[in-house]
Amino acid sequence: MTRVLVVDDEPQLIRALVINLKARKYEVDAAQDGASALRLAAARPPDVVVLDLGLPDMDGADVIRGLRGWTRVPIIVLSARHASDEKVQALDAGADDYVTKPFGMDELLARLRAAVRRAEPVTGSGEGAVVATDTFTVDLAAKKVRRDEADVRLTPTEWHLLEVLVRNRGRLVGQTQLLQEVWGPAYRTETNYLRVYMAQLRRKLEADPSRPRHFVTEPGMGYRFEP
């Protein structure tokens, strides 16, 4: 069963989420503050985290950074903050998705399912599974990236974006296609997601992120991966 960690300081919202998730056969743990969430995640590692940013003891972005120090678990931010820069800050910290309160339960559940799917291992032919550049190596079958003889830690969303680009190496992948393949049809206009995550991939993998050689932007059109 998929284990979900719900982190929110609103008891009524926690109760609603727990009831809805358990009714759909998820295992659910809940925490009402950041410190408890980090302890619970370490003791009972979740498969996905649903996290409010406005916690009583620390900012949700700090919880994301704490989790990202040791796990790639998908993180869905759930927050009443509507400002675009706060969404970008949460994504920059390592969140995989952002749902604004108030929200529809069906939408949240759909995004949760999508986040879990992105984290699942890819199966299929091993043909062309290892792609090497002068800076890093991508093993599509093993879902691993190595740079300077060390593994590079990517979030599930970072990996999924990288995988789509690498599998289409040398070809332009449009913004709409990337958003739909990585995040789903509901994200077709969320180009800020691409901007944030491409910047993160470049920081982790490019020798000079300010002058990307492998992750090329085609302005107004999309992105291309060049080995």
Q: Would you count the extended β strands for me?
A: 12
Shape: globular
* CATH topology annotation of the largest domain: Rossmann fold
Q: What percent of the residues sit in helical stretches (DSSP H or I)? A: 40-55%
How many domain regions? Answer: 2
Compose a concise summary of this entry.
The chain is an alpha/beta fold and about 230 residues long. It contains eight helices and twelve strands. It folds into two domains: about 5-120, Response regulator (Rossmann fold, 3-Layer(aba) Sandwich); about 130-225, Arc Repressor Mutant, subunit A.
Give a topology summary.
Layout: E1 3-7, H1 11-23, E2 27-31, H2 34-43, E3 48-52, H3 60-68, E4 75-79, H4 84-93, E5 97-100, H5 105-119, E6 130-132, E7 136-139, E8 144-147, E9 150-151, H6 156-167, E10 172-174, H7 175-182, H8 191-205, E11 215-218, E12 222-225
Parallel strand pairs: 1-2, 1-3, 3-4, 4-5
Antiparallel strand pairs: 6-7, 7-8, 8-9, 10-12, 11-12
List keywords for this structure.
single chain, 227 residues, alpha/beta, Rossmann fold, Arc Repressor Mutant, subunit A, 2 domains, four-stranded antiparallel sheet, 8 helices, 41% helix, 21% strand
